[in-house]
Amino acid sequence: AVVSTQSTGNYKVISVAHSFTMLSESGQLVDIYIPRRCAVSNRLIGAKDHASIQLRLAEVDPTTGRMTNVIKSYDISGSIRQSGESDDSINRLAVRDRMMPQFVIDMP
């Protein structure tokens, strides 16, 4: 089922459920590029940044130890990883989103 359709110049963007498909005027399927933002620096992550990562953390139910449906996704740029700040940054983001306890970043 098509949720919404938008025309942008020579292309038409069709949003189906949670996926996006881009069609040219002739109806051919065209790849769509959606840029990501670094969760730490809020800068755009370029398509050629092959050192960047996308980390997904799942919430775990403390009683059963099973994964719940809550998943947090963090995009980290290659420049943050190269500077050695990614470990601390991931910890701070996870504590901010209550995926880890506060004492993790308070440790000396």
N-end to C-end Cα span: 53 Å
Shape: flat
What class, by secondary structure content? Answer: alpha+beta
List the quaternary state of the chains. Answer: single chain
Instruction: Strand order, main sheet: write it out.
Output: 1-2-3-4
| Gyration radius, rounded | 19 Å
Number of H/I helices: 3
Order of helices and strands: EEEEEEEEHHH
* DSSP strand count: 8
Strand content: 35-45%
Helical content stands at: 10-25%
Low-pLDDT runs: none
Biggest beta sheet attributes: 4 strands, antiparallel
What number is the mean pLDDT? 82
Describe the protein in words:
The protein has 108 residues and is an alpha+beta fold. Helix content is 19%, strand content 38%. The protein has helices spanning 78-82, 86-96, 103-106, and strands spanning 4-8, 11-16, 19-24, 29-30, 36-37, 44-45, 53-60, 67-76. Strands 1-2-3-4 form a 4-stranded antiparallel beta sheet, with no helix packed on it. It has a two-stranded antiparallel ribbon with strand order 5-6. Strands 7-8 form a two-stranded antiparallel sheet. It is flat, with a radius of gyration of 19 Å. The mean pLDDT is 82.
Question: What's the short version?
Answer:
By secondary structure, the chain is of the alpha+beta class. The protein has helices at 78-82, 86-96, 103-106; strands at residues 4-8, 11-16, 19-24, 29-30, 36-37, 44-45, 53-60, 67-76.
